[in-house]
Design brief:
Helix content is 20%, strand content 43%. The chain is an alpha+beta fold. A hairpin with a 3-residue loop joins strand 4 and strand 5. The radius of gyration is 16 Å and the shape is globular.
């Protein structure tokens, strides 16, 4: 459970400043179509990221950096490179963690919690949440971004997350940042940089040796 709690904390993130100045979109029909089309055409993603984690028990926001890989179907790799080395992969039904050389492996099919975490990550990163019955979705906009705010329907998920906010830049509709908000207002903010889409990514890239 200690490892599971650590994993959940790593992915419960993503926030912007309090002064976002977003307004709700009453009719998001056209935006839905664009996001759905974009997500269906994404087969792989490679990106750098910066993570800001805010915990109420700490006075300072924790900042870390790393690299991210995604490949359909459901292959994910988070490799933290600063201020510590920590890698998480989800591939072939396995959830693997390399904590500075200490390896752990879990079978996702035997653990509903890991399956839920995987679904949330894939949904958020790929933008594939349109028509997803597991979330209620509201759309907002400001000068630069569209924001999709996902509220979990499942009680198990809502105990971990109050909401997931996915930010799409108006220029290209990429997922530029994501916010996982916990009950109690702790959050994690991940900002993606140097994003590449639909490039070749080997299955071996998701191995932890």
């Amino acid at each position: 459970m200690r490892i599971l709690s650590s994993v959940i904390l790593f992915f419960i993130i993503f926030s912007t400043s309090a002064q976002e100045n977003y307004v709700i979109i009453d009719d998001a029909t056209e935006l839905n179509k664009i996001i759905k089309s974009k997500s269906q055409n994404i087969h792989s993603i490679k990106s750098d990221f910066i993570q800001h984690k805010n915990l109420s028990i700490l006075e300072e926001t924790l900042v870390s950096e790393g690299n991210f890989l995604f490949k359909k179907e459901n292959n994910i790799k988070w490799q933290y490179t600063s201020p510590f080395n920590y890698t998480i992969t989800i591939s072939k039904g396995k959830f693997k963690i390399d904590n500075e050389g200490k390896l752990s492996e879990f079978d996702m099919n035997s653990n509903e919690m890991f399956k839920q975490i995987n679904n949330m990550i894939v949904t958020a990163i790929s933008g594939d949440f349109i028509d997803n019955p597991e979330f209620e979705v509201k759309f907002y906009k400001n000068k630069d971004f569209y924001k999709a705010e996902l509220t979990p329907v499942d009680n198990t998920v809502s105990e971990m997350l109050s909401s997931i906010s996915i930010y799409f830049h108006k220029e290209h509709y990429h997922v530029d940042k994501i916010k996982f908000l916990e009950p109690g207002d702790d959050y994690t903010l991940i900002i993606f940089n140097n994003r590449q889409e639909n490039i070749h990514i080997s299955e071996d890239d998701f191995n932890i040796n």
